[in-house]
Amino acid sequence: MQFDTFYYPGFGKKWQKPLETLAEETGIQSLLIMRSTPTHMVAVVSAGPKRDTYHPGDAGPKSVNPGCHKLYCEQVVNDNRALHVADAASDPEWAGNEDYVRFGLGVYLGYPIHSPEGQVLGTICALHDAPFDFEAGRPSLNERLGRLKHEIERDLEARH
Known about the structure:
- This protein is 31% helix and 24% strand.
- The chain is built from 4 helices and 6 strands.
């Protein structure tokens, strides 16, 4: 399956530039739009200096797979709410997370993306390799990520 079709044809191309701009302006290492499947979180858009960590179409196994630790984005999807992990290294719940163990990305902020019917489809998230103040600046990265989440949901609604 081509990555754009996880939401609609052309989705990745539409949202790549806004994520790249946000990464450049804030200095965050990785910005992603992810799609949830029953067994994996799949990258749809990847931006920032660590964009090569996840390529569109790359899939991270969820904890339903034997031997796999819970993913940050998996938690967002399961709880249907935002998640902030300030430092996976000092948090026993997240110390075994793949993003931290494999890529050193132990700081996370993510929001659920909903379908027009209210179903959680995936996430928009930011990852970093060192402490990061998501509230710094006006508007902050936290505020801007939340706005992008709502813009994506409005876009999905308009195409419904």
